[in-house]
Fold each of these.
Amino acid sequence: MLSIKGLNVFYGKVQVLADIAFSVGEGEILTVVGSNGSGKSTLLKAISGIVKPESGQVEFLGEDITGVPDHAIVKRGLVRVPEGRKLFPTMTVLENLEMGSLAPEAKKRRKESFERVFTLFPVLKSRAGQLAGTLSGGEQQMAAIGRGLMAVPKLLLLDEPSLGLAPIVVSQVFETIRRINELGATILLVEQNVFQSLLIATTGLVLENGRITIEGKGKELLEDDRVKKAYLGT
């Protein structure tokens, strides 16, 4: 579904991503792990059209989308759920979800999408009229993922969905990601929570200082001595 070839991204004179290359197959969960500042969020921004690469190619469903505006990329079915949730705090949960379905195709399927989101996140149905800014951190993350699903994604990009959440909520978030994948969504996940994210991953990549240094099957990477030493404390 997604093919990244020789991607290089700079912020001014500082190179943030260097020669990034990988692909995501339909139905996969591909997880990119790494420490703060490794370039994970920049990678998703470059793929989704928020940041313009200096060079390289982003291909989605056989089409070159490098440099295509972000709103046009969303219409193609490539949808990013940003780090930090980025909800509209003074709008209701329902209004925030509706904001995810403004593209023509997504708007046509809004009713179906609401049913899907409320099945995955029953608490959002009971909070539909509540202001998003008054939700707990876990509920806000559910609303952010729900808003992404309202756009009817073919490929869902998740940026640090467990960030700042209590451990029990983190487990719920990863279980939800697994369920979304089982329902047919292909997922590209970037995370600092190495253990949980690789546990559900089809494929895993380790990003260090803007470069991919290790790659392999998700659960196999959990047994890799380099990953254990650097990220799991063992």
Amino acid sequence: MAGIGIPILEIKNLSKHFGGVVAVNNVSFDLKDAEILAIVGDNGAGKSTLIKMISGVYQKDSGEVFFKGEKVEVNTPADAKKIGIETVYQDLALVDELDVPGNIFLGREPTHLGRFGKFIGLLNYKKMFNESSELVKRLKSNIPSLYSPVRYLSGGQRQAVAISKVVFWGKKIAILDEPTAALGVKESQNVLALIKSLKEHGLSIIIISHNLQHIFSIVDRIMVLRHGEKVGVVNVHETTAEDVVSMITGAKMIEKV
């Protein structure tokens, strides 16, 4: 059983090669309970490869993953979901033709008449709508109508639907890949507020973003990757954006926890 102070997620010496290209080399870090950790770096730094190993999209070449102090194998997305890791990628993986409840419950729809109801497609839409409505209100998501197909929602509202799905299914860790990319100022602020609320609901969050202003407004720590290797980890209240940029470009090497 995990003890007090043990990180919810610990990554030890994770590496991934694609032929002769070293995408991630010997990266170690941890994620604490109800913490927001940012992973930053230039294009090609290894950020996407790293989170895809953690979420089971890529199989690691070497290294270990620990969840609540116990070693786990994450070789598929199903493995990651089983231990409570959910990843929201930039494309959000929403079905445009479905409404908000349809997307939140996608693949796990409640039915009338048990298995027989599922077999004949007798969905309990009332339950889906009521539970989705309560969730949206609890998270203070700015979604105007749950009935509308998500194709008609704005970028920020679609992001809110994807994040709400993570919360509803009781995930312990949310990995968010560029959650404010291509959003305007107001919608970005709405999404950042939603991410903060996830922490308040007890989730631990890994966020990838190029926007340092957004990062500094919500995260607890920042990990910098460069050429597939970890440059350092800094507490957000003990560093500056200039320092982080220096780490990204290689002008400064620093290690704080």
Amino acid sequence: MRTDAELKQDVIDELKWEPMISDAAIRVEVKAGVVTLSGYAGSLREKLDAELAAESVFGVIGVVQKIEVKLPGVAERSDEDITRAVENALEWNAYVPHEKIKVNIQNGWVTLSGDVDFNYQKDESSDAVCCLLGVKGIYNLIKVKISPKPSDIESRIESAFRRHAVEDARRGLTVKTSGSKAILSGVVHSYADKRAAEQAALDATGISEVENNLVVIS
């Protein structure tokens, strides 16, 4: 069992290791294995990368994201400019049905809404705009159309866990479904595995929501 002090140092070292992260402006606190990130990032992408870096550290059981995006002067853009950039980014992404997505910008925060057929289209919409200059945050309110659920959906998701190398797919990680929701329970040994299991379930046809009750025990 890693101590909080050891985890804190590992997270700090991981932030320093990533060349895209300016770690000097980011503060790290750890309590009972849960990492809290605070301070400032120079872009939304940097903020998200810091969260991913913390999640990747062995022994971390959760991450609380409190980093604020503080854009340098050269990165500031008007809402009108950001709107045009976001619309272009969505249109030029082959995985995004841009004609189904509505865009609203307020003070650098992007709100995406509309209806799509698959979860990956919702995720790709966020990914397409998170690196754009001037974007401070994203509210992804896109809804995924509920597709017919295969009768063997639970076993299909469990097979996906094994393909994606989720460590505990064979040992106590279970899936139940309720309508279009997948409910995950059991134990995993890293926060990264917890997130990977959730994404694998979201990728399943007929699933539009995941209740992730997996417990991380390092």
Amino acid sequence: MIHWLYERRLRSQLQRLPHHICFMITEQDMLDAPEKILDVTSWCLNLGITLLTFHVNSTDSENIRKFLPYIKKIASVAKLRLHDEYGTEVKGEGVVVDVAIGKSGREEIAQCIKQMANDGIDPKVVDEHLIESYLAFRYSPDLVIKTGGYHLTDFLIWQSVYSELYFSDINWRFFRKIDLLRALRDYQSRERRFGI
């Protein structure tokens, strides 16, 4: 009962929500609590978040097969865009939820440069807007949440340069709606400067 009251109090304090949240999740997180990704998605949707991204830092095919069915359940509540080594699969309707498995920001930027070279782009015209037009993930999250520690991956390394970062000492398997609301409360208390 106390948790319910505290959750309600936290929710009432939220006046400004991020448009786009990105969660950084490890392979072990997904193995320990694969069902949590659907829970977190539902919480965010119910709060009115309009774009979600999950990055699962995993390249082990056997482990990915273990938690992939749980990720695919997101399509029952949102439009899932699943990005993995085989390409992009889209299922469901509604708010877009991108799940990127084993994707690297460094590789994404290197691929942009290669593609620009293949397209014969004159180096003199290359600017940040042109680079952004070549990125696979063409959005910048307002808030990046990392559970269970302080080590981010290089996913969205270009796109998240002005994102607000929130590190929760709560492990993914124990991450609750209250913890999400705390992250959102912290986000709204920050003055976003976008590098200025």
